[in-house]
Amino acid sequence: MAAILETCRVPAPSGAAAELSVPLTFFDIRWLHFLHPIRRLLFYDYPCSKPHFLEAIAPKLKESLSSTLGHYLPVAGDLIFPLNSEKKAEIRYVAGDSAVSLTIAETGSDFDDLIGNHARDADQFYEFVPQIDPVKDESEYQRVPVMALKVTLFPGRGICVGFANLHCLGDASSLVRFIQAWASINKLGGDEEFLTKQGLQVSSFVVTVSYVWTCLVKSGEQVDDDVPEYFIFTADIRARIDPPVPANYFEAISDQIKNRVNKQDEVLKGAENWLSEIKEMTGIRSLGVSGSPKFDLSTADFGWGRARKLEVVSIDGEKHSISLCKSRDSEGGLEVGISLPRAQMEAFAAIFDNGLRLL
């Protein structure tokens, strides 16, 4: 297990707003049914000693995180859930009270094994996942932090940066922008602008996911040919509404989008029922995708070079989910993550490899 070296709370800089409240919309509130946080791990091949890590890297990470929070105040806030049902849930930031929990740790685990592409025991990744503080009961509401972070040193080998957040904080695109902003500020030492690369064509997404889906179905239990299979994925609609929402808009949904939903815009038609429909699919044969071909967190460079490995720990235990992101090493390629029981994983790997050999 990782040894905890330090636990602290990192606030936004002193010049940030004194208070900020962001009411949750119907889209955000529906995500509260999904209680487990989204968990991501970024592994960096960056050999350094423990003294250098504690004296130079950790302090710089805290400083750059504070600067980044000045641009992303909701990340430092708490989810406020009123006991009075007439009041709306919200994400609340209050200067002097709100901060992000950051854990600094050290481990003797095998870095090279963890960043490999072979089948690995999913349980070994949890020591690098940050824990969000439990719900606190106040007189008129309950509150819980929306984000927690953990940075773990592999002495002489590398660093892992772990993220855990409630989905109501923002969608995947928003969190990717936060991570890239933190990395950019940490590397460059200031609030520098950065650009994201263009996404891959849809055809790459279709080819990759359809092949993985087919292999999963073949490796699972046998069912009748007429049993339906469902495919669930998300899409970024910021640019598709009128007027469009800025690409860097951090909330999962805005009032403008809600208004368009009420008008039954074609892009969002039936959106108010999407999450309830997904929830009804529990137990039904389906496949969901966490991530997107447009997401490339390997470019989140804290000054240690590109990340060697991204692991989306949230899919562990979700037998109907896979993770998807841009490939770190293959131009135009995609990386797919999957967590299965050992027997099914071996069957899936054999079917997957055999299919590629037949191309």
How do the helices and strands line up, and which of them pair or pack?
Blueprint: E1 3-10, E2 19-23, H1 26-30, E3 38-44, H2 50-69, E4 78-82, E5 90-94, E6 100-106, H3 111-114, E7 136-137, E8 141-145, E9 147-154, E10 158-165, H4 172-188, H5 202-219, E11 230-232, H6 255-262, H7 274-279, E12 286-291, E13 307-312, E14 321-326, E15 334-337, H8 342-357
Parallel strand pairs: 6-9, 11-12, 12-14
Antiparallel strand pairs: 1-6, 2-5, 3-10, 3-13, 4-5, 4-8, 7-8, 9-10, 14-15
Helix pairs in contact: 2-4, 5-8
Can you tag this structure with a few keywords?
359 residues; acyltransferase activity, transferring groups other than amino-acyl groups; five-stranded antiparallel beta sheet; alpha+beta; single chain; Chloramphenicol Acetyltransferase; Malonyl-coenzyme:anthocyanin 5-O-glucoside-6'''-O-malonyltransferase
